[in-house]
Amino acid sequence: MGPQSSGGQAGGAQSISPAPLAPDLRSADERDRPSRNDSLTAQLSTVVGGPVGDHALIGRVRFWTPLRVLFMLALIFLALGWASKAGCIQQTPGPDGRPTLDWNNGRQYVAMCYSDTVPLYGAERLDEGAFPYKKQWTEDTPDGGTETRYMEYPVLSGLYQYLGMQIAKTWDAAPLPGALQVVIYFNVIAVGLALAWLITVWASAMLAGRRVWDAALIACSPLVLVHAFTNFDALATAFAATGMLAWARRRPVLAGVLLGLGGAAKLYPLLLLGPIVVLCLRTDPMQRVPSTRSGLLRLRDIDGVPAVRTWLRQIPDRIRLLSLRPLGAAAVTVAGALGTWLAVNLPIALLFPEGWREFFRLNTTRHADPDSVYNVITSFTGWPGFDGYLTHGDAPAILNIVSLLLFVLACLAIGYIALTAPRRPRLAPLCFLVVAAFLLTNKVWSPQYSLWLVPLAVLALPHRRILLAWMTIDALVWVPRMFYYLGLDRKGLPEQWFTGTVIVRDLAVVALCGLIVRQIYRPEEDLVRRDFVDDPGGGIVDRAPDPLLPWLPEPLRPKAAPARTG
């Protein structure tokens, strides 16, 4: 429809809208538009009609909101991730004619569909209906001996497996479409993990602020295709992401509870407490806050039990007032996380102490995993390791100490970076550095651990091509891993093919760390901080004063006066 003349007006024709304008012309112009400013997204957007228009009203679509689009993308990739594991839940007639899993001739490796959840159903005695940590069994060891075993996972992950088992057995006993019980169990576990990853996407999108579309890389990560259902790590990513979101919304108690629950599922959410404390330490700890005495009863005002009861009733108010200052908020979060972790673990530790200790025992006696940097060195050099050749059950004492010391040194370096940067860093980059340091220095880097890094990397360094390259490299490590596990006797790959790709993966993560450190020392290059944004995930430290910290020694002070945000 061509332009129409606004009849009777001097000055010629004037173009008008071919349809009535909307009654509300407000537009969320502050939202990032990747189809306009990112070449990769602009090319991909041609599939759905091309980049958004220059004069489009942003945020006015009624149904296909960014979050719903992200959920749709995440569901597509989660469905593909389930399909990638489906080969390992196919059934075949067994020797007795009854159906059994088709894992013949290393099918789980050739089809690259291996998932820990399938063999763990029998290995952890869940198929017997046993309660984790209470049930014990005896296993043969490689050296010809035996050992007593229990559930090897942290408490929340173990209880999640138990819940999945109960649902699978209930389904199997009901007049419903049937399958092998382990197949039902895998699907039940997969549904829960999919929900957990959707929560991760949601929380990350909320943390991204005006750059909500960055979360599309979390929803569409190649690592989701490979590892969403490899183990139970999506539970931890959900708790970690929601814990960070609670901190961003200045709810330190809830943040601590969620991070504590994450720590009860996997360890890494507890590592996020360190960056929170460091950022609060960098923010002026001596800033004035509202008086804590107004309206609060002190014990010396009234003697006796009623005063104690009143004081106890005022604990929520006291916590709220403590949370008004950065270090107080950090203390509340740390206390909430540790208290929650203890509340989840203590009942199991008291009732089944041996079963509860199994996770810690195995991690102490566990040798360097095939994908750790220590085994990579051994693979190419023949180095016997710090402890020499060990038999089954012998703890690698020196390796445990070395990996711990290297991680502590890395954390000290990250703390130094956070304190000396010209402007207080954002929370997400520091969290990524800490978790990456843990994985790089640890003696274990199970393949699904890479999921831990995905939300943090997207929030820390939203450069789509770089992130997509790293995620693709990390996901492709799965291929030589599976064929290495297949064995040379079945036409698998030599170990060096696998460990060589591990080196590439580690170098990619180190490169991401280098880019993030560069961004911290050059905050003007941080895409998130454009348009007068400080730290969408910073919570109480977002837009807070960023002083020179004269109470710190000179080497630990910021190198230049921080720029104030609008």
Order of helices and strands: HHHEEHHEEHHHHHHHHHHHHHHHHHH
Mean pLDDT: 87
Count of separate DSSP helical elements: 23
Largest sheet: 2 strands, antiparallel
Number of strands: 4
Instruction: Please report the distance between the alpha carbons of the first and last residues.
Output: 44 Å
Gross geometry: globular
Strand content bin: under 5%
Strand order of the largest sheet: 1-2
What structural class do helix, strand and pairing data support? mainly alpha
What does this structure look like?
By secondary structure, the protein is mainly alpha-helical. It is 54% helix and 2% strand. The chain has two domains: 62-289 and 324-556, no CATH class; 290-323, no CATH class. The chain has 23 helices and four strands. The strands form two sheets. The protein has a two-stranded antiparallel ribbon with strand order 1-2. It has a two-stranded antiparallel sheet with strand order 3-4. The relative contact order is 0.10.
What's the quick description here?
This protein has 566 residues and is an all-alpha fold. Helices cover 54% and strands 2% of the residues. The protein has 2 domains: 62-289 and 324-556, no CATH class; 290-323, no CATH class.
